[in-house]
């Protein structure tokens, strides 16, 4: 226990130092200095660690929340930079690997698809909320995993959508025709959410656990009964980079948790939760039984770090 505490203390001290350095940057746009600091931060947070961010003191909590905000802003600028750079090339889709976190999205979309496939056979319509200027998640699902699915990408930033449309415009007709982009704040989506078999909630939509909980409650109110939510979250030290989605908030939002995946290794940063919108008539009982009857098991032979209900 002693060793664990000192490991956590050393990690929090290192991340606090990186937060201080990042906070002093004049700009978060990609540059050798910005890239070096965020590369060091990711390298510190990705390895598995006993840190539980819910147990941090108030000062470290405040630092964490501000660091998530800085990471979100930097990720948006990084994606915009690479979206511009890629769409300036001939055949941009041949060069997507130039994006520093390309492998993360290739591996993450495969993991999410493989876990989803066990619960939703060939979804006809998928919404991706928080698609950004570089919509790799929905693009890779459309290109490699779900050849007949239509994707509606939502982002509150019209400039991000403009960049995303330009990039996807370079895809082949079969993919282009199945990818639509809409400028909207997630809180303003209502009836349209009822059309989807699956709704993805990007890691950076909702900066705090409270905002995540409110967004999930909003999705639960408007998604169709039986539809599936894939909510990206974070685990361990990665919770210094991204907000955490609480399982209780998934249950309170009217969903039953089907699977939780915490990626082992450094191939994928994001955890994610797969949950099904309960039929309103049963949510009173299922919601209650969710708290007591569901038993976590790790299914043999399934990817490391995955937990699903029996
Ligand atoms: C930087 S992108 C990351 C997504 C990543 N490209 C992917 O494929 O998973 C996150 C996007 O979420 C959008 N966003 C954040 N909060 C939002 C909200 N409340 N409603 C809609 N979009 C939001 C931001 O504008 C940003 O473009």
UniProtKB/TrEMBL annotation:
Catalytic activity: 3 S-adenosyl-L-methionine = nicotianamine + 3 S-methyl-5'-thioadenosine + 3 H(+)
Coiled-coil regions listed in the entry: none
Keywords recorded for this protein, A-Z: S-adenosyl-L-methionine, Transferase
Keyword Transferase: yes
Keyword S-adenosyl-L-methionine listed: yes
GO biological process, one term: nicotianamine biosynthetic process
UniProt-listed Enzyme Commission number(s): 2.5.1.43
InterPro entries per UniProt: Nicotian_synth, SAM-dependent_MTases_sf
Stored Pfam families: NAS (PF03059)
Domain of life assignment: Eukaryota
GO molecular function: nicotianamine synthase activity
Function: Synthesizes nicotianamine, a polyamine which serves as a sensor for the physiological iron status within the plant, and/or might be involved in the transport of iron.
Family: Belongs to the nicotianamine synthase (NAS)-like family.
PANTHER family referenced in this protein's UniProt entry, alphabetically: NICOTIANAMINE SYNTHASE (PTHR32266:SF21), NICOTIANAMINE SYNTHASE 3 (PTHR32266)
Protein name: Nicotianamine synthase
């Amino acid at each position: 226990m002693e060793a664990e505490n000192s490991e956590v203390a050393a990690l929090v001290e290192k991340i606090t130092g990186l937060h201080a350095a990042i906070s002093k940057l004049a700009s978060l746009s990609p540059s050798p200095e910005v890239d070096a600091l965020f590369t060091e931060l990711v390298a510190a947070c990705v390895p598995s660690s006993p840190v539980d961010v819910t147990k941090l003191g108030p000062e470290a909590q405040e630092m964490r929340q501000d660091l998530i905000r800085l990471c979100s802003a930097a990720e948006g600028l990084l994606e915009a930079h690479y979206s511009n750079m890629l769409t300036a090339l001939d055949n941009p889709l041949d060069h997507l690997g130039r994006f520093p976190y390309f492998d993360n999205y290739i591996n993450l979309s495969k993991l999410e698809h493989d876990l989803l496939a066990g619960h939703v056979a060939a979804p006809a319509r998928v919404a991706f909320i928080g698609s950004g200027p570089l919509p790799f998640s929905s693009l890779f699902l459309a290109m490699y995993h779900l050849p007949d699915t239509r994707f509606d990408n939502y982002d509150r930033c019209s400039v991000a959508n403009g960049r995303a449309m330009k990039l996807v415009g370079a895809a082949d007709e079969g993919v282009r025709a199945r990818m639509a982009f809409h400028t909207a704040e997630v809180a303003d989506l209502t009836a349209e959410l009822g059309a989807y078999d699956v709704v993805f909630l990007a890691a950076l939509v909702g900066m705090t656990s409270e905002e995540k909980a409110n967004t999930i409650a909003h999705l639960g109110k408007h998604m169709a009964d039986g539809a599936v939510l894939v909510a990206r979250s974070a685990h361990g030290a990665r919770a210094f980079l991204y907000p955490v989605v609480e399982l209780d908030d998934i249950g309170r939002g009217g969903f039953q948790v089907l699977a939780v995946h915490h990626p082992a290794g450094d191939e994928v940063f994001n955890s994610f939760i797969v949950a099904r919108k309960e039929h309103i008539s049963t949510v009173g009982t299922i919601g209650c039984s969710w708290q007591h009857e569901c038993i976590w098991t790790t299914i043999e032979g399934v990817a490391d770090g995955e937990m699903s209900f029996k």
